[in-house]
Amino acid sequence: MKDFFEFELNGSKQQAVSSSSVLDHLKDTALEPPNLCYHPDLGALETCDTCIVKVNGEYVRSCSTQLKKGDVVETVGEDVHEAQLIAMDRILGNHELYCTVCDFNNGNCEIHNTVKELRISHQETPHEGKDAGVMRNAFYRYDPDQCILCGRCVEACQDLQVNETLLIDWTLKKPRVIWDNDTTIDDSSCVNCGHCSTVCPCNAMMEVGMEGEAGFLTGMARESFRPMVNITKNVETGYESLMTLSDVEAQMREERIDKTKTVCTYCGVGCSFDVWTKGREILKIEPRSEAPANGVSTCVKGKFGWDFVNSEERLKKPLIREGDAFREAEWEEALDLIESKFTATLKGKGPDALAFISSSKCTNEESYLMQKLGRGVIGTNNIDNCSRYCQSPATMGLWRTVGYGGDSGSITDIAQAELVISIGSNTAESHPVLATRVKRAQKLHGQKVIVADLREHELANRADLFVRPAPGSDLVWLSAVTKYIIDKGWHDRAFLRDHVNDVDAYFASLDKYTLDYASEVTGMTKKELISIATSIHEAKSTSILWAMGVTQHGGGSDTSTAISNLLLVTGNYMKPGAGSYPLRGHNNVQGASDFGSMPDRFPGYQFVSDDAVRARFEKSWGTEIPTKPGLNNHEMVDAIHDGDLEVLYLKGEDMGIVDSNLNHVHSAYEKLKFFVVQDIFFSKTCEYADVVLPASPSLEKDGTFVNTERRFQRLYKVMDPLGDSKPDWQIITEIANRMGADWNYAHPSEIMDEAASLTPLFAGVSYDRLEGYDSLQWPVAEDGTDTPLLFEKEFPLPGGKARLWPVEWTKPLEFESEYDLHVNNGRLLEHFHEGNLTYKSEGITAKTPEVFLEVSPDLAKERKIEDGTKVRLTSPYGSVKVSCIVTDRVFGNQLYLPMNSSGEGVINYLTSSHADKDTDTPAYKEVSVKMEVLEPKGKSPLPKINHRYGNPQPQIGVRVEEKWAREDYIFPGDLVKERRGNR
Amino acid sequence: MAKATKVIHRMKVDPEVAHEKGVRELETLLVDHKETLKDIFDIVEKMREREILNMVNSSLGQSDKIITRIVTALDASDTPKSVKNAMLLFQLLGNIDMEQLEPIALKINSGIARAAEYEHEGQPAGYGGLLGAVKDPEVIEGMNVLLCMLKGMGEQQDAKERVEPQKERLENPGKEMGTSSTNKKSVQPSNRKSNTGWYVLAAGAWGVAIPLLMKGRQAKDRTSV
Q1: Average pLDDT of span A713-730
Q2: Which keywords are on file for this protein (chain B) (predicted)?
Q3: Residue A109, domain extent
Q4: Is A434 part of any domain?
Q5: What is the DSSP letter of A35?
Q6: Are residues A645 and A673 in contact, defined by beta-carbon separation less than 8 angstroms?
Q7: Residue A538 sits in a domain of what CATH number?
Q8: Are the C-beta atoms of residues A848 and A946 closer than 8 Å to each other?
Q9: Nearest residue on chain A to B7, judged by CA atoms?
Q10: How many beta-carbon pairs under 8 angstroms link A with B?
Q11: Cβ neighbours of residue A41 under 8 Å, at least 6 residues apart?
Q12: C-alpha–C-alpha distance, residues A320 and A42, integer Å
């Protein structure tokens, strides 16, 4: 409940909401004071002084002054204006106004707009440089001579991204922004997330993609620039004419620079932002506050990793295999061939000899069409998607216990949780923007963070408690903690009574999970176990995040179930800040399953075996749909080996690298009678295809994605498809029509309308309700009401109650003693998976050119390994060659092999076909190897310009107090008071 | 039994087919814009005759160097100042109220006409004559007009000035606040908001002028950085 109270504004009575600042109250009104350092996502920084107003007769910064009952606020007096002008004039002393020849002059320069608003016509504090050169790297640049020292970039770096690289050195004669200990950008700990350039109010911190590109006059030769600025400044008779001229020029830019909203195509966080383009050229990515998942946040991939879209390596024409080579062909020929092969197989072997694999990179509409093609046109349920490789166990664990396989709340819930437990999740690298919310909440708001992982990754390093259970033993410690909580009587009795079934049977199943047993199996101390239990007990809300470290095991579904059990027992569902958060890996891994690319379920998780549901789809599609569930990815590979599956149509998935036990998968491909692969690049999987179809990436099409929060977001077409490539939904439609379907989709919105009409879970989803940055979190009722908090009144299970689900520990694979090292594997921040998109970025590749193996200092000493030593790892299933990095992120005999390779370092040459017993998700994390040194000395695979060698400088915010303490600083309000007092 | 392969044979585009396609596209374009093209060709033909096309061609070919030369030369010349003055004059025109100016202009015209008519007849000018003239209603009227004008000129107009740097005082707050600054007493009278004791100001004019001139000089030096 918000409280209202009365105060006086410029002599008249006003109502205000409690806990708002004076500036908050005045925002977006005619009385809004100028404000340059204030940013809604960063809060009050108090560095610019331009927002000065008078409250109860005192000059104050309105951004940081809380409005209180009975306050007398003056915003319009001559003296107030004078104080604001003093502040603004100081700012102009730091920033040269050459707007017309500035790349930032796009109507959104806050300095330009404030000068206009204040009707400043001249500047008396002369502009002075800061006696320091421009700093730059491949992604952004900093021009100290344009920097107004507002500190937004520092605040964003320190407290929003929490990378803690940027500072303003207030001790310098001329203060400026510095990186780490005043080093270069590339030598610093900067991860190039782009927050600084996004929040900068002017052209000081700017994306290099904008330089010389945004304006009509900004591309001039370097030597013309300075004289041109001088002329502009000498000619102008006051800023009014300059402003008019630059406004006209900014308006002209609107004609040739397109700003199109899209959703990031990398991880599952679902960042959305505007893409600024000039033709096919991408000038910059501009996140906006209204983006529901990310606000102004991005990571290096989302902000700068888009070079792949215009890569020369893009597939531009269909390819048809002829013997041991491909030849480019026209669409007609490729579609003819597909039609004839599909038809022949259908006639000869029946529909189940064909299978379809959808993509978690593609849109919901495309996943919907792929399963409609399989089920409705071909007549088989052999349809799956890559969540089989990652998230199916988490979904299974949640289906069992709470009924819906999705995050319990939003990213904002994770941020407001009192306790966050992260298990088997390298969050800061795999879901960088989501991790920023945890890091910020911990740094600024006292959130407690517990991390259970093998590696001391960034979040582990920051955690209040970091525990390292033995690989694959999470179920045991989770169950022991749950039992300890129950034994102590800390369980939530009321919640269990009102909302949970099968409580007694579950409690009884925990008997064996004593602290002693857990300690013995996991290697964790009893103290650690008790500490975790106590933390959960003491916190009002607990959110548990987990990822592949949990799911990619033989008992991945059971461990996910154990997590949900723990949350149920402690009442950590049905309230803000609490719940289960399986962090989805790909941009649309949630949507691919949501839209029915699963062997046993239609869109919205409706069973194909349910007659009523099937009848609904049959009626709408006008076809018959098979009752029997089809094959999942894993089973498809076996079916090919068995000769039952002959034709495979796969899109947007490099299964030939990401599936486990690759040698087994590759030999299956070789046995296929006909293999169609649809991708934007010639991937490893394409090498085995008979027909390769050129598809379009997200920037070249319309559609929707569902992120990890179950959030639907629209992406708009930024540019036309390259060459002869086409959006996947068009290709699938053409293939379906060749096979006799009569589909007439003119736009993806029509596909969404059809899917929504058949799916109660998102009945109310439509493109109209997803305009711009609008979003919906499923379930979405027909009237458009969505569900940010997934469980509010009940659980979608019998009786509206959740259920506790007893689970048994599945011991991880055991290897012969010669395989003496455990190989952990996962993502890197700067490359996405095997890197077929991110290696196209020169900037990213320069910093992280290849895969590397992390080796602990102990093991390195024992095996005489140093940075650059090349080794061969051999498991019973294959081997890889890779260069080493010695780091204390890993411990003892545990290695870490990131998956950013499509060459001889691919982790999946080592992994087995062993899988989660309930979902067939490969047990990627159960790998042991032996290691032999091939070349003792070599070049380090990680250049020194990689951020991992940086030296972060944590501090809270921009430390404005240090500015105020400087001898040359006087608060403008004091100055005005003194003047007026002396008059 | 497809073995992995990375070999891709690119499609060879038949140059004749591509050429034919291009020609056909161009034909359509020409026919669609027949009238416009005729006009453009007329203009371009005239430009060619007058060597304009050659000039433009050469200029574009050397554009970067030419722009650098021009802007460097302009920057070093008085041209920016001229342009600035021209723009200031233009702004000044906007400030003049022609309706009010008209009667004054007529009076001045009349004054000039009388002056032109006046002939010195070789007689020494007598104080008597001058005093007598003061009685003349036309002279009294003229003096009243002049006095009104002087009074109007004395009015505070700072706020309306666009040429005057509006935050002059910001540069050195001491100037206005009369704080510990050593020259505060001599500077204070220069504050045009002060409207009393103009004669004191006149008396102290030199004292005022020296530090002010120096200040102005300093400010100018700095702003030119």
Answers
A1: 97
A2: Membrane, Transmembrane, Transmembrane helix
A3: 4-256
A4: yes
A5: -
A6: no
A7: 3.40.228.10
A8: yes
A9: A325
A10: 128
A11: A156, A160, A199, A289, A295, A296
A12: 53
Could you tell me the mean pLDDT of each successive run of 10 residues in chain B, 225 residues long?
Answer: 87 87 92 92 90 83 76 74 74 75 83 79 68 82 84 71 41 39 36 38 39 39 30
Same domain for A534 and A574:
yes
Give the domain CATH number at A334: 3.40.50.740
| CATH classification of the domain holding A836 | 2.40.40.20
How does DSSP classify residue A768? G
For residues A325, A329, A333, A339, the Cα torsion angle rounded to the nearest 10 degrees is 50
Asked if residue A421 belongs to a domain, the reply is: yes
Residues 157-176, chain B, touching A (beta carbon < 8 A) = 162-163, 165-168, 170-171, 173, 176
Is residue A813 situated within a structural domain?
Answer: no
Chain A residues close to B60, C-beta within 8 Å: none
Cβ proximity of A303 and A194 under 8 Å = yes
Q: Are strands A691-694 and A674-679 parallel, antiparallel or unpaired?
A: parallel
When CB atoms are compared, the residue of B1, B72, B178 closest to A671 is B1
- Same-domain check for residues A837 and A890: yes
Q: Is the pLDDT at A528 greater than 80, yes or no? A: yes
Same domain? A780 vs A865: no
Q: Same domain for A533 and A626?
A: no
Predicted pLDDT at A652: 93
**CA-to-CA distance for A802 and A798, rounded, in angstroms?**
8
**B219 CB within 8 Å of a chain A CB:** yes
Question: Per-residue pLDDT tens for A562-617?
Answer: 999 999 999 999 999 999 999 998 999 999 999 999 999 999 999 999 999 999 99
- Comparing A97-111, A447-461, A635-649, B189-203, the range with the smallest average pLDDT is B189-203
CATH assignment of the domain containing A223: 3.10.20.740
Q: How many domains does chain A have?
A: 4
Task: Name the nearest CA neighbour of A853 among A824, A829, A885, A831.
Answer: A885
This model's pTM is above 0.90: no
- The DSSP code for A809 is P
Mean pLDDT of A36-64: 94
CA A395, distance to chain mean position in Å, is 19
Tokens in use for A860?
């390195």
| Span between the terminal Cα atoms of chain A, in Å | 48
A516, A555: one domain: yes
Same domain, A571 and A596: no
Task: Tell me the chain B residues in contact with residue A690 when contact means C-beta distances shorter than 8 Å.
Answer: 2
Among residues A784, A783, A786, A782, which one has the least CA distance to residue A711?
A: A786
Same domain, A377 and A404: no
Is residue A277 domain-resident?
no
Do A760 and A881 lie in one domain? The reply is no
**Token couple for B111:** 């004054």
Question: Which tokens is A740 given?
Answer: 């006799």
Task: Please state, for a pLDDT cut of 90, what percent of chain A lies above it.
Answer: 83
Question: Strand pairing partners for A458?
Answer: none
Measured distance CA(A97)–CA(A94) in Å, rounded: 10
* Interface contact flag, A126 B2, Cβ < 8 Å: no
Structural Rg of chain A based on CA atoms: 30
